[in-house]
Amino acid sequence: MKKFTLLFTLCIFLLGLANAQTNSILKSHKLEEMAPESAGISAERLARIDKMCEEEVAKGNLPGIVSLVARNGKIVHWKAYGVANEAGDKMERDAIFRIASQTKAITSTAVMMLWEEGKFQLDDPISKYIPEFKNQQILTNFRYSDTTWTGVPVKNEITIRHLLSHTSGIGYGAIDGDERFQMLYKKAGVTDLFTTKNITIEESVKKLAKMPLHHEPGTQFTYSEGLDVLGYFIEIVSGMPFDQYLKKHIFDPLGMEDTWFYQPEKNIDRVVEVQTPVNGEWQKYPVTFYDTDYPIKGAKTFFSGGAGLSSTAKDYAIFLQMYLNGGEYNGVRLLSRKTVDVILSNQIGAIHGDSDTKFGLAFELVTEKGQIKGGLGSEGTFNWGGYFNTQYFADPEENVIGIIMKQTQGPVNDATGWKFRQMVFQTIDD
Questions:
Q1: What is the per-residue DSSP string for 23-77?
Q2: Which of 70, 53, 56, 124 minimizes the C-alpha distance to 427?
Q3: Which residues contact 202 (CB under 8 A, 6 or more apart)?
Q4: How far is CA 175 from the centre of its chain?
Q5: Comparing C-alpha atoms, which of 282, 325, 313 is closest to residue 386?
Q6: What is the CB-side half-sphere exposure of residue 314 using CA atoms within 13 A?
Q7: CA dist 245 to 250, 294, 296, 331, 343, Å?
């Protein structure tokens, strides 16, 4: 019995040592392309993803795609399909996409890096740093004829935690589910997503602070412009312009060379056009309440923490791998492993009820119920997407990353988001 116990203990020790060595290797090396089998992935099953993407483009459901799969710090699939613009130029793997709401996780990361420096507490009221958020009200009455409104004072102020977890009660203007907020934000001149106009986040956030809230802070989940507020908050706390803070403290250290709010001249030819279907043909999306050419033209002064960045599949994979590594990538540590644990924990309590997902301080999180449902990944898988049809997920249990990038708007017959995610997990073969 003693021999068995000693043998069992030795096996556990060796397994732990092997895992520690694996984690050390992942943290100290860059993401590189390797044979699928070296990462416990079936090449034959990966071919199913390849076929699916090819078929979706061939059917005309999408003009172009870039997809990437990585496991154990190794890129096992990274391909481009279709075209990048109305002119028909071939999509390339290093194509640059507007990642829109995928910006939010990067902004949240910057917030938590400053939190680690002791600059603030998560439950500090945002009004401590942006006084315009004092004395906010919850919308109760609204008159459509002239958009006048009345409200009741909040019982509790909006905190930084509320802004990170979309429980602040702040709305989202043009894409808000409540048309009253769409009307109010438009009248006030709040910049909701992206712009080519000469506007700063400080100006927009201070206008936003005068708007009513959907609900009492902390009581409901309302997808919001809270990350734009935090972009301005980062400027105040760090003493640096938001774009410069991200470049100096996240993009340069991680080697995310193609991630910018506004792409440099040398990258413009790689920026994918946003396209929309018109009479069975893919055409460049027209200027509406925004101009889709914002990453390459205009005043280039608005750094939207919730929607403004453009990037590549590879760059975003680097960012996600940093999280899978517990806050470190290629020998550079951005966050403590303990901070990553906090970010990847349920921050909204019973909000959402018994659902497939919860929400942390940067990402949506798959619950046990979501895992059992199938196709979403293991419990704790974190994910989100972007306004122009980009999606990503990362599964810490399986150490798998999946990224699929498209650039479309309008009524699009696209099933690649759910198909890709479901099909990534069937490739695991270890």
A1: HHHHHHS--EE--GGGGTB-HHHHHHHHHHHHHHHHTTS-SEEEEEEEETTEEEE
A2: 70
A3: 232, 235
A4: 17
A5: 313
A6: 17
A7: 8, 20, 20, 20, 20
Angle at 126 between CA 125 and CA 129, to 5 degrees: 115
Strand-pairing partners, residue 364, are 359, 383
Contact (Cβ atoms closer than 8 angstroms) between residue 159 and residue 126: yes
CA distances from 371 to 32, 68, 111 (A): 29, 22, 29
Over residues 81-109, the pLDDT tens digits come to 999 999 999 999 999 999 999 999 999 99
Per-residue pLDDT tens digits for 189-216:
999 999 999 999 999 999 999 999 999 9
- C-alpha pair distances (Å), 111 with each of 222, 243, 343, 421: 20, 13, 11, 29
Q: How far apart are CA 417 and CA 413, in angstroms?
A: 11
pTM value surpassing 0.70: yes
> pLDDT, tens digit, for every residue of 58-71?
999 999 999 999 99
Give the tokens for residue 196. Answer: 């080519």
How far apart are alpha carbons 26 and 77 in whole angstroms? 18
Give the pLDDT score at 183: 98
Cα 345 to Cα 349, 364, 376: the distances in Å are 10, 10, 17
Residues 386 and 306: their CA atoms lie apart, in Å, by 10
Residues 378 and 365 sit within 8 Å (Cβ to Cβ): no
Dmax over CA atoms of the chain, in Å, equals 83
Residues 48, 238: Cα–Cα separation, whole Å = 46
Look-up of token digits 């019973």: 350
The rounded mean pLDDT for the chain is 94
Contact 256, 321 (CB under 8 A): no
Q: With a cut of 50, which residues of the chain have pLDDT below it?
A: 4-5, 8-15, 17-23, 25
What amino acid occupies position 70?
A
Nearest to 272 by CA among 92, 60, 61, 101: 92
Give per-residue burial for 54-70: e unless 16+ CB within 10 Å, then b: eebbeeebbbbbbbbbb
CA atoms 58, 60, 61, 63: torsion sign: positive
Pairing of strands 32-33, 74-82: parallel
Question: 3-state DSSP call for residue 393?
Answer: strand
Give me 84's structure tokens. 């990048």
